[in-house]
Amino acid sequence: MPGPAPDERMRPKGRRNTQGIRVDPEAEVTHEPRQAVLSALVKHRPGVLSEVSALFSRRQFNIESLTVGPTVDDDTARMTILIEEPEPGIDQAKKQLRKLVPVVSVRELEGEAVRRELALVKVSGEKPDDVNAVADMYDGQAVDASTDSVTVEITGSKQKIDAAIEAFKQFDVQEIVRTGAAALERGPKTLEKDV
Amino acid sequence: MSERASVPKEAEETESETEQEPVTTGAQSVIRALENAGTDYVFGVQGGAIMPVYDALYDSDINHVTMAHEQGASHAADAYGIVTGDPGVCFATSGPGATNLVTGIADANMDSDPVIALTGQVPTEFVGNDAFQETDTVGITQPITKESYFAADSDTVGDDVSEAFALADAGRQGPTLVDLPKDVTQGETEVEPGRPETPETYEVPEEADDEDVQEAVEALAEADRPVILSGGGVIKANASSALREFAKEYEIPVITTMPGIGSFPEDHELSLEWAGMHGTGYANMAISNTDCMLAIGTRFDDRLTGGVDSFAPDAEVIHVDIDPAEISKNVYADYPLIGDARNVLRQLFDAMPRAPDADEWRDQCQTWKDEYPMDYDTPDDEPLKPQYVVEQFSEMTPDDTIVCTGVGQHQMWASQFWEYTEPRTWVSSHGLGTMGYGVPAAIGAKLAAPDQEVVCFDGDGSFLMTVQGLSVAVREQLDITYVVLNNEAVGMVRQWQDGFYEGRRMASEYPWIPQFDKLAEAFGARGFTLESYDNVEETIQEARDYDGPSVIDAHIDPGENVFPMVPSGGDNGLFALNEDQLDMI
Ligand SMILES: Cc1ncc(C[n+]2csc(CCOP(=O)(O)OP(=O)(O)O)c2C)c(N)n1
């Protein structure tokens, strides 16, 4: 085939970054990931959770936690999904979620949304008083005790729970279970269709 | 959205209702739902779990085409959907039947082709017990469909099918699946399926926001180097004529994507044909150097863009798409316009203040056309060149001839050297790149358009993957011409091995392939062989004249490769014109 070789051709000046965004040809540009809380109303029916989680794994979104539970409407469940992604990824996650047929609505909650997580921590029962004292520091409480173990319940932000678990390590932590975050917008706003 | 009447007209509905017997089983309700939606053809294979549905089909006017393999059923349905715009329907039994459909469903999903797959399933009480021929079909197919339904109840199974039908066709088209447990289809019900309607949570945007349109047209009118990039979505939205009007009125050069082939006539002076890995040099030069791109119905696949960092780096992008999730997924859209392509093109047409001042740019595009013509070497003594076969065939056939392909070099030559002028005449596997697509796709295409000529360019490797489909073409007496561009290799792989793996041709040469002309005869089709330039036209003519499926085994130059080429992840403007240039870029 004829025609000028690659190095003799008319060349554009511009440049995009790897996310396809036009950028200053001279500058180095990357998008830093941030945390986003997505809240979704979904049809309460079998397979929805797998559909949503499969979407996240297939598209390689970096998911921190995903919780799901019933709402005031029996036919609807609500999912809270924490993801950590650069801005375009967060945008894609929202749009892809919205595309799923059982998804009624999706919104990213604002930074100051009420966010809570629950953890149950089972520690050695040798020093119950000390365990209680640490639990108090984190507004936790013992919900089960035997001669060998104490189980403490803590609710709060992820940071608070991380810190509590760190503190409980002195008592030989035997088991932990965490729920991942549940979140609601502050103020009167609710998540309904078309918000 | 296609122009198919997914909801039957009132009059027709009442008329047919009076004629039809009331349903008595879930299976009858399934078939009724398909009838209500206007289904003419179903492609499938029988089996235990789907048998009740077939039994109900016995009393229906819907035509069933028994395929030789379920993969063929899903590809035939896919091609049927591409050619007609209406969903193609395929049936398979549970387990292996359903898994055999999967490739075709994934293919339809990548190319946004409307397909409905109905699969048998073991009776509900056995589901989850690893019963004979059980697989989790919904689980397997969920990531590759718009939605996969598990029909749980004989009373609602008809509605599930109606909804699946409407959903496959609505908005951005795509495949849907309904898994049908045997007890549900066998179960008694008197419930007639409702009208095909999309689920309430599925919203289809119709028109773009007027203010957004206004901003976009201002940018486009200001451009010095404008292009239109027309994708497969333009064809699916039946927007080809709106595109033609728009481009001609405002004199903007048009590039298509590969799935967009046929959306704009390649013989028009504004056409730069298609861009991407093996697109024309002029399309890729224009893509690279444009300052404003109106991209319609394209998802900016990496075979089109090359590396996104070098894709149209000077361009402001106006992106029209019916699927909001496509906006800024791969290439950032400065002006997103969400809506049906045909409507939005109308809006753009009306809002455009003036044509861009682009005489110089059009001249530049013409210069590139002159500099980088699509050609190849044809010294008489050389073995037959595949491009020549494609070119000759193209010249001999009417404009509305439908071309189907397998996947590989032959697919690229068929797209490069055939001149496409009409939408829905190019039927190929793009996003998934499925070898074996051609044989069954041609069957679906021919049944979808019995009055149009259908030719399938296949590779020897691709052809062998679904060659059993010839038996179907013979049984149905389908007038299809299969041309195997036979290079005794999986040529596209060999090309990459030569270019990027130091010529280490591991598992890419197939010197043991059968004689395809004889194979054709064994199936009951006509077989031809082509070995030189002498009888190309004559053989093509004979094969075309034969009233039934014919296979031309064209022994082509095994050394021939596909150029131009943008290496994977490369820069579109730096396409290589030959092997040597691959080292330069
Ligand atoms: C089902 C499947 N398997 C493997 C591939 C990888 N692949 C892509 S092109 C190609 C070569 C195709 O060979 P052939 O059909 O003979 O066509 P040619 O390239 O020789 O024209 C292969 C193996 C594929 N695309 N699809």
UniProtKB/TrEMBL annotation, chain A:
Residues 1-11, 23-32 have a biased composition (Basic and acidic residues). GO terms for biological process: isoleucine biosynthetic process; L-valine biosynthetic process. Keywords: Amino-acid biosynthesis, Branched-chain amino acid biosynthesis, Transferase. One of its GO terms (cellular component) is cytosol. Its EC number is 2.2.1.6. It is an enzyme of class 2 (transferase). The keyword Amino-acid biosynthesis applies. It comes from the Archaea. Residues 37-111 form the ACT domain. PROSITE patterns: ACT. The keyword Amino-acid biosynthesis applies. Dimer of large and small chains. This is Acetolactate synthase small subunit. It comes from Haloarcula hispanica.
From TrEMBL, chain B:
Pfam families: TPP_enzyme_C, TPP_enzyme_M, TPP_enzyme_N. Residues 1-26 are annotated as: Disordered. Its cofactor is thiamine diphosphate; Mg(2+). The keyword Ribosomal protein does not apply. Pathway: Amino-acid biosynthesis; L-valine biosynthesis; L-valine from pyruvate: step 1/4; Amino-acid biosynthesis; L-isoleucine biosynthesis; L-isoleucine from 2-oxobutanoate: step 1/4. Residues 406-553 form the Thiamine pyrophosphate enzyme TPP-binding domain. Residues 1-11 have a biased composition (Basic and acidic residues). Gene3D superfamilies: 3.40.50.970, TPP-binding domain. Coiled coil: none annotated. Keywords: Amino-acid biosynthesis, Branched-chain amino acid biosynthesis, FAD, Flavoprotein, Magnesium, Metal-binding, Thiamine pyrophosphate, Transferase. One of its GO terms (biological process) is L-valine biosynthetic process. The keyword Flavoprotein applies. Its EC number is 2.2.1.6. GO terms for cellular component: acetolactate synthase complex. InterPro entries: Acetolactate_synth_lsu, AHAS_TPP, DHS-like_NAD/FAD-binding_dom, THDP-binding, Thiamin_PyroP_enz_cen_dom, Thiamin_PyroP_enz_TPP-bd_dom, TPP-bd_CS, TPP_enz. It catalyses: 2 pyruvate + H(+) = (2S)-2-acetolactate + CO2. SUPFAM superfamilies: DHS-like NAD/FAD-binding domain, Thiamin diphosphate-binding fold (THDP-binding). Residues 213-348 form the Thiamine pyrophosphate enzyme central domain. GO terms for molecular function: acetolactate synthase activity; flavin adenine dinucleotide binding; magnesium ion binding; thiamine pyrophosphate binding. This is Acetolactate synthase. It comes from Haloarcula hispanica N601.
